[in-house]
């Protein structure tokens, strides 16, 4: 029929192929060529100056947004992702992407946040902070990845979200707040490749749902006694601590190889009675409690897969 725009289930918006930068009018012109109301997935690729146009509100069936190798110049409140216009949205991923001044775009902070959006991923970004009130907008129990980015501290707002997955690996974080280990219902806590050297010494009310804790490639060399009940619960299930490349696992390797009798960190009164016991009689428990094997991938997010799908090829 004349005048009917073509339907588009997946929008592959590639600025490199279109020879544009992704500015407002350029995006608006390209998006006029299809029916926004039929799109389920929006993929934005290789845009050096991406600006979200007003027609974004027409993507009423959208379920997933992917942004890759892009600089977001403007994603304003007037074109925010909202439950009003994007009620089916379940996943948002920004990968190898820069945001202005490392600040979360206001378009991702609506108080009318999509009711089904529980998977929020940032990987290889310049995100340096999240707003203090983001827990009043994003949903409790979400899975939040902020991986290989620029966070220097664990945002309290993310702790208040009580995330199911919390991935903070690859950020220049030096200290971990105790409240992080009081989150009920968290399954994975990823702190790999951060600048931490220890976990908090005291946890007032440690969560007893036993999350997997990843401290791979950190300077963590010892554990405190509060972790013992959690380790005990998981001994016959799976190692709850992933620590390959850490100071702790390096010490453990030397102990098991007969090169050392003790961990380098001195024992203290409140040290973990399980994890800091280097006696040969305890080795079996240590092997069950701590996984020192090398990981298959460098990131929790599927960065390798995305690079394979979306990188510019000559």
UniProtKB/TrEMBL annotation:
What InterPro entries does the entry give?
LRR_dom_sf (IPR032675)
Q: Which domain of life is it from?
A: Eukaryota
Protein name, per record: WRKY transcription factor 19
